[in-house]
Amino acid sequence: LGRSVPSYFYDLFSPESIQRSGILDDERVSKFISKCLAKRGTGMKDFPLINTDNMAFVGLLSSMLLWRQFVSETPVQSSREMKFTTFVDRVTAPEHV
Q1: pLDDT tens-digit readout, 12-71
Q2: Best exposed site among 10, 15, 20, 88 by fewest CB in 10 Å?
Q3: Cβ pair 39, 49 in contact under 8 A
Q4: Cα 36 from Cα 1, distance rounded (Å)
């Protein structure tokens, strides 16, 4: 987290959102997020969290984004339109002779 926090951040990590997900402990997550916000710098080179905290933050963010996008009824709204395409290559097994 640099100086600016994305608009969806506080909604994503609100105690209500975390409770609704049912996958994380809202009290522990709130304490951890407060720690991250208190130590944020001007960019990644100034980000004073240790490596394990950085990994924990990415894990929490990923978990909540995935939950919000694919499980929750209110997906994260992006400021720009995002389109994803899926390509499936069908491979058939050779016939046994």
Answers
A1: 999 999 999 998 999 999 999 988 888 765 555 555 677 888 889 889 999 998 998 888
A2: 88
A3: yes
A4: 8
pLDDT of residue 13: 92
- Helix axis angle for 26-38 and 51-70, nearest 10°, is 120
67, 75 contact by CB (below 8 A): no
pLDDT of 76 reads 57
Give which of 9, 37, 38, 12 is closest to 26, Cα–Cα: 12
Q: Using CA atoms, how far apart are residues 56 and 33, in angstroms rounded to an integer? A: 10
